[in-house]
Design goal:
The complex is a heterodimer of chains A (196) and B (178). Chain A is mainly alpha-helical. Chain A contains nine helices and no strands. Chain B starts with a helix and ends in a 9-residue tail after the last helix. The chains are: A mainly alpha (196), B mainly alpha (178).
Amino acid sequence: MGPLITYELISQDTNFLLAFIIGIGFGFVLESSGFSSSRKLAGIFYGYDAVVLKVFFTAAITAMLGLLFFSLFDWIDLDLVYVNPTYLYSAIGGGVIMGAGFIMGGYCPGTSFCGASIGKIDAFVFIFGLFIGVLLFSEGYPLWEKFFNAQFLGYPKISTVLGLSDGIFAFGVILVALGMFWVADWAEKKFPQPEY
Amino acid sequence: MAIQEQILKKTKYLNPYLGGVLLGLVLLAANFVSGRGLGASGAIKSTLVTVVNAVAPNHAENAKFYQEEAISHGEKPLKSWLVFEMMGVVVGGFLSGSLAGRLKLKVEHSPKITSKRRLAFALAGGILFGFGSQLGRGCTSGSALSGMAVISLGGFISMAAIFGTAFALAYFFRKNWI
């Protein structure tokens, strides 16, 4: 039955229309959770506001369990769902550079559009920076092409790598998340910061 | 009293766990409908490639990155799932912000730093994040969050590298935030 587009239950144009509607939901939830504020986003790294951790992990677990149950009920064929490829070096290298950008800029790409949508000027400047960064990558592409394509491991699931079933792995993620939520609540009380 | 409470409530944010469940359902819907997760940086790349194709067509024809893009994403990079999704993000963010009374043109920064400093760091952070998202084949949404939902090894590596690095560097940039 699902994914609808792969089974040709909807047309490509409908798929784009639904992408727009899904985007509205994405932007609405991000903004109402406080992701339009760089101050709230950066809070996780100093303990005063753990909204990023709570929303991010709750969302990942909800979607993960949803997909596992949908698959169990035969509502979706997980073999047809896109799984990100793993290029070991560039995943780590890109992640490290993004982490530095995160703590300096206070946004990530999705949240910066959210911040810009309610008038945050710092978010507009961040987005301008994103374009420069992407341009630098594309213009200098031959310089890092080798690194970019090195250590391609295919499309592995982390559960397979660890030798666990998907369900057991998801259960483990839930336990880890609960532990982190507990620490986050403690940190929010321990390192409070005023709103501004 | 009740009205005051409502006004106060209106400017407040959603409970983070409720927000998380809703975001998870949006992500689940994306996978169910389109067989893919959410994303953001891909839309920036599509826009940039379109601009370069229009402004410097000769350059785009000769540079390897744009050649590979033309092969993998076709002649019209703007007609892509992520571009439509990101247009929705702006609409959705604006709707939520207007309902909550948060629409305001401003530079958000700690009272301990100037807006100029905040903007300089926002620019530098954006450049790094833009570059890193291309190297890492996706950002916090596309690689980390959506990758984790499908239990992809790459998704978990991205998540750990992004948040781990930001934590490790937090001390050096503390003046900007606390």
